Automatic annotation (TrEMBL):
Gene field: Cds1
Locations listed in the record: Membrane
Organism of provenance: Chloroceryle aenea
Transmembrane segments: 48-80, 101-120, 140-162, 174-194, 200-226, 238-261, 314-336
EC number: 2.7.7.41
The keyword S-adenosyl-L-methionine belongs to this UniProt entry's keyword annotation: no
Protein name (database record): Phosphatidate cytidylyltransferase
Amino acid sequence: QEVDLEERLGELDLRSDSDIPDVPPPTDSTPEILKRALSGLSARWKNWWIRGILTLAMISVFFLIIYLGSFMLMLLVLSIQVKCYHEIITIGYRVYHSYDLPWFRSLSWYFLLCVNYFFYGETVADYFATFVQRREQLQFLIRYHRFISFALYLTGFCMFVLSLVKKHYRLQFYMFAWTHVTLLITVTQSHLVIQNLFEGMIWFLVPISSVICNDIAAYIFGFFFGRTPLIKLSPKKTWEGFIGGFFSTVVFGFIFSYFLAQHQYFVCPVEYNSETNRFVTECEPSELFQMQKYSVPPLLQAVLGWETVNMYPFQMHSIALSTFASLIGPFGGFFASGFKRAFKIKDFADTIPGHGGIMDRFDCQYLMATFVHVYITSFIRGPNPSKLLKQLLILQPEQQLSVYKTLKSHLVEKGILQPSLR
């Protein structure tokens, strides 16, 4: 019996967290030209200039992609998703590299493809119905999309079961969970980002810019005025930076929304034009983006000297978005800090000098994307006639005729249409 017990224990991986090997520290990816130019500065100011220069470069590239249009923004989101996924999976691979787990990396990327196929297939079915209707091969894929997605996932699931080996069962299931949590964090959230983009580019730009503004403002206020530690997970975060970032972000979001709300390119829903094979942003702006007159609260009238003020209704929503970005959004960063501390690493990667990996810069963005999607569905979005029409066009002619008769009967009962004479 004792021998059997030892054999059973030998088949289990009972190593504790203290047995986990450290992840190799990331290398310094700062360009040599910047190292030479900043060689005379202290480490604190050197990091300041590196972060500042790279931040301006990233913002410039971001503005260029905005100019190129919605499709390029979607490709950007997809690229960031893949890179973030790669960084998190690589940490797991490096930590447990000595175990030589079979098929771990291959299955991780296979599951990424499966989940992306499912989510982006749903997007194609919702927003590209007219395009799909013209191509028979796509009609088959869309009609059985969920079954195909499930079959692909089931294949990966069976491959994982077949890859199980003695002495590594516990670890393999741990890494299976690691992969799925990573998919939840990256793929589903990036899908919500694209869903927000289809509602109008302003729903994409204001939240993302608010998080960026809060990150920059909190860093600046913390750098110059920070004295009081905010949270143990991030020792460099201070209350001064947190509070300064909050007020700066709310003001920025309010002003930035005012400029974006004036242009159809930013406020109109993104729709696909099947005739031109292009994304279009042309519409009659909704009431959210039409100037309204508001009465100033009596308490503020004495301070501002105004009784009324003209503003876009969306600016009020921008305050809610900015508040979340500055008060709740940083908890995404704190969560990431806890994750990094658990594996004794400073950054997810060394992709961006002075900033770390892509995930280090987008840890708050994913949390923000979920909030914006919930906010839109809860308080903004109403019935969408154009989307409903696209769904009707996919139906068979007899189904369309049935819908027509039902709708006509309903409108006649309400007195909107006159009964047809017989």
